[in-house]
Specification:
By secondary structure, the chain is mainly alpha-helical. Helix content is 80%, strand content 0%. It folds into two domains: 2-216, no CATH class; 218-269, no CATH class. The relative contact order is 0.11. It is a multi-pass membrane protein.
Length: 276
């Protein structure tokens, strides 16, 4: 189970991974430490099982792989998925004696990741609302020519928001939530139909994430041929993630060079026509 020290460290990590640039900023927080696959490294170090946590984070990362924040609109803040979902999925899978890389554990992780995404949204907007209070104080002090308030409003005071809205809730949820896993195990036997349904739904959720990503990057139907080719090569050659990335980089370079050649040829033809 998760100890108080581990729960406190998870709460601290959730603060550093906040989407609002008041902790470590958007680049380090939202686009790095906030992502389940990266967060799983730190969660694994805290819980003492890096490999197991990374395995459970994979379906969560795929579900939310296409999550963006257009105009500050947040559909799901991944700090809860990473620092609540992964620890609870790990505690639940371990208590049930599941293989952390098996389909049941991955399906369970996907379901938990989808559920706690809403918690992250509440954290995001809760922090934003508290920060509005600090901004109001800042404007009032600026009207009195107190320019020292700028640093406090942008750096110091928002930390209070993160402690109240992120650190404390994550610490309590991970500690008491992991402790409730025993009751969960008794009330929901693994061979029951509703648990099997949970596993099945969880295993299908990553497909939704891939579909959202394809909708964002595919501009025409023929683009799907390249995705199908990539999946076929990766599956038939049993490529690891690093190897698949290397192969994809080679094809991207070839496509870039061919595009430059075509653009260069088109420019040359245009210049010849102008000379004539």
């Amino acid at each position: 189970m998760i100890t108080w020290v581990q729960a406190a460290l998870l709460g601290l990590m959730s603060c550093t991974a906040a989407s609002i640039p008041a902790a470590l900023g958007t680049t380090i927080g939202n686009y790095t430490l906030n992502r389940p696959l990266i967060a799983s490294l730190f969660v694994g170090l805290i819980l003492g099982d890096v490999e197991g946590c990374i395995k459970l984070a994979i379906p969560m990362q795929i579900i939310y792989i296409a999550v963006v924040t257009p105009g500050g609109t947040v559909a799901a803040d991944l700090r809860a998925v990473s620092y609540i979902g992964i620890p609870l999925a790990y505690a639940t899978a371990k208590s049930q004696g599941l293989d952390l890389g098996g389909p049941e554990a991955l399906g369970l992780a996907g379901s938990i990741g989808a559920l706690v995404g809403t918690v992250g949204t509440v954290q995001f907007y809760g922090t934003a609302m508290m920060n509005l209070v600090w901004q109001h104080i800042g404007w009032a002090r600026l009207d009195k020519k107190d320019f020292n308030i700028i640093t406090k409003v942008n750096v110091i005071l928002p930390l209070i928001s993160h402690i109240l809205v992120s650190f404390i809730p994550v610490m309590l949820i991970t500690y008491y939530g992991a402790g409730a896993v025993t009751d969960f195990k008794t009330a929901l036997p693994m061979d029951s139909w509703y648990m099997k349904s949970l596993f099945t739904i969880g295993s299908l959720l990553p497909a939704v994430g891939i579909a959202i990503l394809l909708k964002s990057v595919v501009s025409k139907a023929t683009d799907l041929i390249f995705f199908l080719f990539g999946f076929t090569v990766a599956a038939s050659m049993h490529l690891t993630l690093i190897a698949a990335t290397a192969v994809g980089a080679v094809f991207a370079l070839i496509n870039y060079q061919m595009t430059m050649i075509r653009l260069g040829g088109a420019k040359t033809n245009t210049n010849e026509e102008e000379d004539i």
